[in-house]
Amino acid sequence: MRAFEYVVARDSAQAMALLAEHGSSVKILAGGTDLLVELKSASHGPQVIVDISRAEDMKKISLTGEGLSIGALATHSEIMDSQLIRDMFPALVDAAHTIGAVQTRNLGTLGGNLVTCVPSMDSGPTLIALEALVTIAGAEGRRQMPLTDFFVGPRKTILKPTELLVDIIIPKKNLGKPVHFLKSGLRKGQALALVNVAASLWVDKNTFLEPRIALGAVAPVVMRATQAEAYLAGRAVTPEAMMEAGRIAAGEARPITDFRASAEYRRDLIAVLTKRALENAVLLAQAKLKGVKK
Ligand SMILES: Cc1cc2nc3c(=O)[nH]c(=O)nc-3n(C[C@H](O)[C@H](O)[C@H](O)COP(=O)(O)OP(=O)(O)OC[C@H]3O[C@@H](n4cnc5c(N)ncnc54)[C@H](O)[C@@H]3O)c2cc1C
């Protein structure tokens, strides 16, 4: 690893000042679970590392006027422990639980997971199925955008080196929306996803309302299966419809063959996992209709 200067930011304002001071030679450190691995093998690294891991104002998980705000520095363990998230979106807890082992979840942050932007990231699908927004802070101030626009390609986001991902917001209209996450890897623990899927929806009079399906590890970035969503919207809730949506989702994904699995196997997984995620989201939605807590 090459030598670098190390500075600590005590809050997001100081982090912004340090990023502006050091320009493009700077790199942000949150939990370090991705960055340190990268730095060990990089031929040339940053001159300055700004450690934001102690910036308390970026760790908050709270309800705001906009929706559920999750600070970019919330760790996967903190997401699993948050009563607010457990009550509102157990699928986010399920997704966090599949990330690495306890040590990785204690250090790794939601923001770091999204910024690293590997197609198999486990926090992406549920957030995309819930139409999450991200807040970015830069020299020109703050801006918000859908998470889908934040991802540009494998390991590439829209962030500039001097910009900070501040928080992730699940919009008010989707608070409490039934959502289910599923992941398939080569083994249960400590494995990257071969495919991960999240489905969110409402059900009214046995009809699908606002179905959203997000797929990970099957395209350059986490993607929405918009054709499958369009097929389901307004359609009667039947096992056949969910099976067909899975088939359509498998068709619109762009999986690759690599040492973990073939593209064909991944397509089969997409069809099966999408159907199962939809079935589980429907059960949650129906229970909500009846006023039963699931
Ligand atoms: C053993 C092991 C197992 C793992 N298993 C999984 C798994 O199963 N599923 C999975 O999805 N991931 C997995 N990961 C990946 C990793 O743990 C996550 O991506 C983690 O959430 C990264 O967060 P971090 O805080 O450690 O990021 P860091 O390593 O600190 O940073 C990652 C990148 O994001 C940038 N960054 C971080 N925070 C911000 C911010 N707020 N604003 C702007 N830029 C920022 C950094 O500059 C860096 O480029 C695993 C990692 C390890 C080491």
What does the oligomeric state look like here?
single chain
Main sheet attributes: strand count, strand direction, barrel closure? 5 strands, antiparallel
Overall shape: it is globular
CATH topology of the largest domain: Uridine Diphospho-n-acetylenolpyruvylglucosamine Reductase, domain 3
Strand content: 25-35%
Mean model confidence by pLDDT: 96
Which strand order do you get reading across the main beta sheet?
A: 4-5-10-6-7
Helix count, DSSP H or I runs of 4 or more residues: 12
Radius of gyration, in Å, reads 19 Å
SS-based class: alpha+beta
User: H/E series, N to C?
Assistant: EHEHEEEHHHHHHEEHEEEEEEEHHH
Low-confidence regions: none
**Helix-residue proportion:** 25-40%
Task: Explain the overall architecture.
- This protein has 294 residues and is α+β, with helices and mostly antiparallel strands.
- The chain has 3 domains: 5-51, Uridine Diphospho-n-acetylenolpyruvylglucosamine Reductase, domain 2 (2-Layer Sandwich), CATH 3.30.43; 56-174, Uridine Diphospho-n-acetylenolpyruvylglucosamine Reductase, domain 3, CATH 3.30.465.10; 179-289, CO dehydrogenase flavoprotein, C-terminal domain (Enolase-like, domain 1, 2-Layer Sandwich).
- 37% of the residues lie in helices and 26% in strands.
- It contains 12 helices and 14 strands.
- The protein has helices at 12-22, 35-41, 76-81, 83-88, 90-97, 102-107, 110-116, 124-129, 147-150, 226-232, 239-252, 263-289, and strands at residues 5-8, 26-29, 48-51, 61-63, 67-71, 133-138, 141-146, 151-153, 156-157, 164-171, 179-185, 193-204, 207-216, 223-224.
- It has a 5-stranded antiparallel beta sheet with strand order 4-5-10-6-7, with helices on both faces. Strands 11-12-13-14 form a 4-stranded antiparallel beta sheet.
- The mean pLDDT is 96.
- Flavin-adenine dinucleotide binds at residues 27-35, 37, 72, 98-100, 104, 107-109, 111-113, 115-116, 121-122, 159, 164-165, 192.
